[in-house]
Amino acid sequence: MTMNDVPKIITSRFDQGDAHTLDGYRRTHGYEGLAAALEKTPQQVADEVKAASLLGRGGAGFPAGIKWTLAPANVWPRYLVVNGDESEPGTYKDRMLLERDPHQLIEGVLIACYAVGCGQAFLYIRGEMAHAQERMAAALNEAYAAGFVGKNILGTDFSVDVVLHWGAGAYIVGEETALIESLEGNRGMPRLKPPFFPAAKGLYMQPTIVNNVETLSNLPWIIRNGVDEWNKLGAETSKGTRVFAVSGHVNNPGVFEVEFGVTTFRDIIFDPKFAGGIRGGKALKAFIPGGASAPWFYEEHLDLPLEKVAIDRAGSMLGSGAIVVMDEDTDMVKAALRLVRFFARESCGKCTPCREGTTWMEKIMQRILDGHGRPEDVALLMDTADNISVDFMWPPRMTTICPLGQSATTPIASAVMRFKDEFERYVGGPIELNVTVKGAAFIGPPTRKKEGSGV
């Protein structure tokens, strides 16, 4: 099967002008998956999703069907929460799904609620995504009026209410427990887990399933077409298709749905059907494979498949599905500072290593970039980062309640380890590092030779 033969599962209506309306959605198999699901038992639907090995598309990549089984039996009520707080730099695939195909998400929510036994769902959408919020609100009104949401859906005894909740624009509430805190009216700060994971005690301390927008949007197609058709697509450990947002120094930035685990980074960055190569014909310097949290990749990683296991082994992650491309002219010190500043500003402040460490890293980076840095500042920078993410392992050791603090160290480790010479030019002399670095993507091949150095 070639890339041209792969069906579009969740972006098939992107070119359809009225796909966001109920009429446009129903004209293209809309709500047929829900009708098919209601002809089965909830357990049968849950078993199908589990058999499909639908990996979560929000970052962690945990199988959705297995997550559903973690809710304790006979504990009611239970809730479904949709994580639509997409806010990592370079990530915008979920926003496109919310704006262009909102009914697809609503149908996925209903199928998940039926399988898990939820009587109420909450759609949590990032505060800045005003157009997405408006589209979802209009779609929900249409779905209620048509009897797809509410009481006795499609003439059955299945009833669900869906609440649309607008966030206030905090990156940290993308973490599921911080999102739950925000839904409850509290400041968005992550909860300590264990002892309680959301599936056991989440929203209002009741069993809560938290799924990502893209994850749930796949459910109508899976139920309508069957697990066997789904499993024909993708690699052994990464089934189906996946949507990636490609941005940065490419000719055609955008959102692309590709076969999961088969398509390579080279395909999606350079193929004319996708991002179309580096703008201006320049060379690739580095790219971020899975959102700002992910360790950077380089030219030697281009032929890796977009597949969770392969990327994990290489020392990074597919994460939120955001591929950010940097060309040969990119100042990697500036690029690292931009990302560190984002994480420092978005830290909720609950954990000392993250609250203090991210701020210090930003200050040191800014001093270096302003031309006031000393050679020892780079060692200080890495030492500060090492206190947050010990040994720079990947996945990182957890020194904080959530991974935000560790995420802030990844651009520093990537830039310093690979582009040490650029830091040396800023600080005016050679630098020596005194920390241990174990992450595969951070170590990589030797740093580029300096001109005339012979090493």
From TrEMBL:
| Coiled coil, from the record | none
PROSITE patterns noted in UniProt: COMPLEX1_51K_2
Molecular-function GO term, any one: NADH dehydrogenase (ubiquinone) activity
Listed SUPFAM superfamilies: Nqo1 FMN-binding domain-like, Nqo1 middle domain-like, Nqo1C-terminal domain-like
The signal peptide annotation in the UniProt record is none
**What are the protein's UniProt keywords?**
4Fe-4S, Iron, Iron-sulfur, Metal-binding
Q: Where is the NADH-ubiquinone oxidoreductase 51kDa subunit iron-sulphur binding domain?
A: 333-378
Protein family membership: Belongs to the complex I 51 kDa subunit family.
- Protein name stated in the entry: Unannotated protein
Species of origin reads freshwater metagenome
What lineage is on file? unclassified sequences, metagenomes, ecological metagenomes
